[in-house]
UniProtKB/TrEMBL annotation:
Protein name, per record: Benzoylformate decarboxylase
Gene: mdlC
Major enzyme class: lyase
Biological process according to GO: carboxylic acid metabolic process
Stated family: Belongs to the TPP enzyme family.
Thiamine pyrophosphate enzyme N-terminal TPP-binding domain span: 6-106
Residues in Thiamine pyrophosphate enzyme TPP-binding domain copies: 427-552
PANTHER family: BENZOYLFORMATE DECARBOXYLASE, THIAMINE PYROPHOSPHATE ENZYMES
Coiled coil: none
Molecular function, one GO term: magnesium ion binding
Species this protein is from: Lignipirellula cremea
Thiamine pyrophosphate enzyme central domain span: 191-330
Length: 566
């Protein structure tokens, strides 16, 4: 049977269960758009710029755990997509990114928009290739999908010339995409050694990252934490990602600080750290001392990606294996190896930590009460108000780190671990589009995007997509009319003008952006709020609304000192 290249692409993806193609087209991508007029197995989700398009696919893949497919325009479109591709690469998100290439018959002439896209995409993908024969396209698709979804997962890129898309052949092998079971059991000897080191720890701590949630290993982690009597610390705001541990669990020790000196201080009291599902560490700015992990801290690190083991810090034990399986098999070893006295000590640590964490939460509530009268609202007042009305099954996408500062987690307001998404790559404009993709993956869950007004402007076109497809995300803009994190960073660097509170190019004023009018022009109902009670009412209403909504919340424009999680 004769089949065109683009028909083969659609056939293989549809049979594999792909539901959406996120895209912004150009001439070299038109065969796909034309085919989807009649083939309704894939729904094309149109975005007005590649930044929100890529972010939507990123959010969809992270929430669904499935492959997301993106189609962007040749060279310039790929260039626009690169920031969000970097995010996906840092997150390990399984994306298949495709772009059309100029007709091979034009290649020698160096045609307009033609270019070496493979070299552009290669640094931030697991695999990138241009398909030069239509007969190779099915194999390239199968290989790309398997590569994207095999741990360590990540994005892949296919460049497909226009004539390859349109060429018809009877020699296309349309065998379905099948995946091997990529779960690898950890070596027993390594797990036993890890259990031995952890069982004798007098002051253990667990550092947990996004891959715990992405491998559905939260219950196993909770069990191990309770056995060890160890606090669980999430990744710092520089790579916060997905929550690996319930925020309201008594052993939740909150997040690691942002900077090296505070990380060392936070970890100084512990003798053994179990690191699971996270990169140790990816820091944002250089600070002295350069080594964030104290020298005395013995490290036991479990990960599916051998590259992460011992990459930056020497390990006592490194365990390569599936996260969920590794934690599940570690638990009975701890039970067997820990003496009655060690088990009793772990139980006593649980009691002490429960009391300490409850006290820390109460102290935070008292700070909230102190700041409640201040106007404009402080970030703490804003986030505490949000925490009051969050549904248990909410999904929160966060791109406003100086405002959120893990407040809703520290208050124990996030009742589930699956529904939190924070930055891991830090290319801005991600949160708005990501929330749309999450909502498409989870249509029955309320989705709240907590965004900085500056970050949102990098991908504001995504509002149009939410309006077009009636994707009911609630967008909450934390509006302080500035790039506040850059002011904090400038002070942290000791820059002379910043220390005097004077900045160039960091304030979004003269004119200020009218987000209510802007959202309305893109088809989104919006309103501005300035009072906590008003926010409480409007946010509750928006989260239950079957339409997308935007809330522009005015907050204090003061520049805080050095941020410190926990």
């Amino acid at each position: 049977m004769s089949t065109s290249g683009i028909a083969a692409l659609i056939e293989l993806l549809a049979r594999f269960g792909v539901r959406y193609v996120f895209g912004n087209p150009g001439t070299t991508e038109l065969p796909l758009n034309d085919a989807l007029v009649t083939d309704k197995r894939l729904q094309y989700i149109l975005g007005l710029h590649e930044t929100p398009v890529m972010a939507m696919a990123d959010g969809y893949a992270m929430a669904s755990g499935q492959l997301a497919v993106v189609n962007v325009h040749i060279s310039c479109g790929l260039g626009n997509a690169m920031g969000m591709l970097y995010n996906a690469f840092r997150e390990g998100t399984p994306l298949l990114l495709t772009a059309g290439q100029q007709d091979r018959r034009l290649a020698f002439e160096e045609p307009i928009l033609g270019g070496d896209m493979v070299s552009v995409a290669k640094p931030w993908t697991k695999w990138a290739v241009e398909v030069s024969r239509v007969e190779d396209l099915p194999a390239a698709i199968r290989r790309a999908v398997q590569t994207a979804l095999t741990p360590p997962t990540g994005p892949v890129f296919l460049s497909i010339p226009l004539d390859v898309q349109m060429e018809v052949s009877e020699l296309l092998d349309l065998s379905p995409i099948t995946l091997p079971d990529a779960r690898v059991r950890p070596p027993l000897a390594a797990l036993e050694r890890a259990a031995q080191v952890l069982a004798v720890a007098q002051r253990p701590v667990i550092l947990a990252g996004s891959r715990v949630t992405e491998r559905n290993a939260m219950a196993e982690l909770v069990r191990v934490a309770e056995q060890l009597g160890a606090p669980v610390l999430s990744e710092s705001g520089t790579t916060h990602g997905r929550l690996a541990f319930p925020s309201n669990h008594p052993l939740n020790g909150q997040g690691l600080p942002l900077w090296s000196p505070e990380v060392r201080e936070r970890l100084a009291a512990y003798d053994v750290a179990l690191v699971v599902g996270m990169d140790l560490l990816r820091q944002y700015c250089y600070h002295e001392p350069a080594r964030a992990i104290p020298e005395h801290l013995r490290l036991v690190h479990i990960d599916e990606d051998p590259w992460q083991l011992g990459k930056n810090y020497p390990l006592e034990v490194g365990v390569i294996g599936d996260t969920k399986t590794s934690l599940a098999e570690l638990s009975p070893l701890l039970q067997r190896l820990a003496s009655p006295a060690q088990q009793q000590a772990a139980a006593e640590r649980c009691t002490v930590l429960t009391r300490e964490h409850a006290a820390a939460r109460q102290t935070l509530r008292e700070r909230v009460a102190e700041q409640l009268p201040a106007r404009p609202m402080t970030p703490l007042t804003l986030m505490a108000t949000v925490a009051e009305v969050l549904p248990d099954n909410v999904a929160v996408i966060e791109e406003a780190v100086t405002t959120t500062n893990t407040t809703i987690e520290r208050l124990g307001a996030l009742k589930n671990t699956t529904g939190y998404f924070g930055h891991r790559g830090w290319a801005l404009g991600w949160g708005l589009g990501c929330s749309i993709g999450v909502q498409l993956a989870w249509p029955d869950r309320p989705v709240l995007a907590i965004l900085g007004e500056g970050a949102s402007m990098y991908g504001i076109q995504g509002l149009w997509t939410a309006a077009r497809y009636q994707i009911p995300v609630t967008f909450l803009l934390c509006n302080n009319a500035q790039y506040q994190i850059l002011k904090i960073g400038a002070q942290g660097l000791g820059l002379p003008q910043a220390e005097q509170g004077v900045y160039e190019g960091l304030d979004l004023v003269s004119p200020e952006i009218d987000f209510v009018a802007l959202a309305g022009s893109l088809g989104i109902q919006a309103q501005r709020v300035s009072e906590p009670e008003e926010l409480r009412h409007v946010l509750t209403e928006a989260l239950a609304d079957p339409r997308p909504r935007l809330i522009d919340a005015a907050i204090s424009r003061d520049t805080p000192g050095r941020l410190n999680y926990g």
